[in-house]
């Protein structure tokens, strides 16, 4: 029997478990217990489905399982792809007791969750993330949505899953670049909320890159714990939850300006975290330490060459902005973050100019 750990995202009647363990797909975990009706509709992509769709189907026991397979990649996180999922549900005459299951990375999870929030004004869904980034970040917290040509995740909804099932064995087939991209979000949690975890990452980065099972399980578990705590305090990002976007104001702008899919989300966030750390006015030693940790994770420590005005234009559509005023997640110290509109505009111009 697979050994697992269960965390809880405490949201009252919308609370749900996050189950973490190795080899949970294939029947070791009774996923069907979280499916109210008789039919499941799995949303996956052409890369993940051949690897794990059969195992997921086994986990659902006697449930009827249908699927829709999407193209792979951030470039396909669009309304057009969302329509493909909705069209498949309508064609299959899916009823209100159908449960959607997202099997894949963050793109699949965001699209499936958004489709679940829309179809018949809301049906159940489950997250079964297969990338490190999705396991530690996008699968937990209920953010769903798609990109628009003018900005990332501009169209979507807050919609919580019934369950998040994290099978760490799926990381065995994850490309090295995708693993590193996920580590950017892991580092983020230490930077914003847990200096001790940042110390642990400093000590265990090589084990994580070598895919040591115990190290990965701890990193995933602690990341999910930290995110669950923040989401429980502020489900719809009215305040504190915004700290989870450390580095993302810069990172999303990099993705938008580069063209979605050129840089992976985690790569853009990695460079964005360093830009945000510099804007924070941290002591040079703290910025250098964060830079070295990101470099050791095999992530970019400098943004790509992008015109400063183009970056500012893309940042203007950041969801944390109020009116025309940008707000950034800044660090007061390692492990201590805040959302603020109080920043040095000259320093921001220098930071953006350095990337141009």
Written account of the structure:
This protein is α/β, with parallel strands linked by helices and 356 residues long. The chain has helices at 49-59, 79-91, 106-118, 132-138, 176-193, 195-209, 213-233, 248-258, 265-280, 284-296, 308-315, 345-355, and strands spanning 4-9, 16-21, 39-45, 64-70, 99-104, 125-129, 143-148, 151-158, 164-167, 328-333, 336-340. Strand 5, helix 3 and strand 6 form a beta-alpha-beta unit.
Task: Give a quick rundown of the structure.
The strands form four sheets. Strands 4-3-5-6 form a four-stranded parallel sheet, sandwiched between helices. A three-stranded mixed sheet has the order 1-2-9, with helices on one face.
What key attributes describe this structure?
three-stranded mixed β-sheet, 19% strand, Rossmann fold, Dehydroquinate synthase-like, alpha domain, 44% helix, 2 domains, 356 residues, globular, alpha/beta, four-stranded parallel β-sheet
Structural class: alpha/beta
Main beta sheet, described?
A: 4 strands, parallel
Number of domains: 2
Task: Please list the strands of the largest sheet in the order they lie side by side.
Answer: 4-3-5-6
**Element string (H = helix, E = strand):** EEEHEHEHEHEEEHHHHHHHEEH
Question: Average pLDDT across residues?
Answer: 95
